[in-house]
Amino acid sequence: MAFASSLALRLGTRPSLANTCRTTRPIMTLAEGAKIPAFSTKDTDGKEVSDKSLAGKPAVIYFMAGAGMGCTTQSCAFRDAAADFNKLDASIIGISARNDGAAFKDTNSLEYPIVNDGSGELQRLFGVPKTLGIIPGRVTYVVDRESTVKKVFNAQFSFADHVRIAKETIEAMK
């Protein structure tokens, strides 16, 4: 429940999620052209990450299963491309389906925020599908300055392609 206490979202009138989710949007898969859902949470450093904090500049929000080989490859590829994203004035946010994001961030020298989502609340809010119905999805959302989804890339085993496609999408926005 540590995640629920750190995630300030309100999902409709579901009492079990009161004070954990602040949105009135239905939970469904986000499509290109949609606005990202309202959310507010803390990253592993205790800093706020929210739809409002991301507004005003392009952002890459990527979901990963946890700390396995694919997640490490994907996260380190974003780390290695961070200078390119900085030049594009774009934020990177990693969302882990586990609750060990702080150790993962430290081990891999990640400079961008990592958010723990062990409860799956953000995955459900963004509509991240599971692979084979059991593996947390690997989906990257690229959003513009107005928080509109410009690209959804869903590929469980194309780890580095998430970075390439995110970069290409943000470059095309310029």
Annotation keywords:
Glutaredoxin, globular, 5-stranded mixed beta sheet, 7 helices
Can you write the helix and strand succession as a string? HEEEEHEHHEHEHEEH
Helix percentage range = 25-40%
Highest CATH level, the class: Alpha Beta
Question: So what's the overall shape?
Answer: globular
Q: Which superfamily, in CATH terms, is the homologous superfamily?
A: Glutaredoxin
Give the integer mean of the pLDDT values. 84
* Count of the domains: 1
- How many individual helices? 7
Task: Explain how this protein is built.
This protein has 174 residues and is α/β, with parallel strands linked by helices. It is built from 7 helices and 9 strands. Strands 7-6-5-8-9 form a 5-stranded mixed beta sheet. The N and C termini lie far apart (41 Å).
Short recap of the structure:
The chain is α/β, with parallel strands linked by helices and 174 residues long. It contains 7 helices and 9 strands; from the N terminus they run H-E-E-E-E-H-E-H-H-E-H-E-H-E-E-H.
Layout of helices and strands, plus pairs?
Elements: H1 2-6, E1 10-11, E2 22-23, E3 40-42, E4 48-50, H2 51-54, E5 59-64, H3 69-80, H4 82-87, E6 91-96, H5 101-107, E7 114-116, H6 121-126, E8 139-143, E9 149-154, H7 161-173
Parallel strand pairs: 1-2, 5-6, 6-7
Antiparallel strand pairs: 3-4, 5-8, 8-9
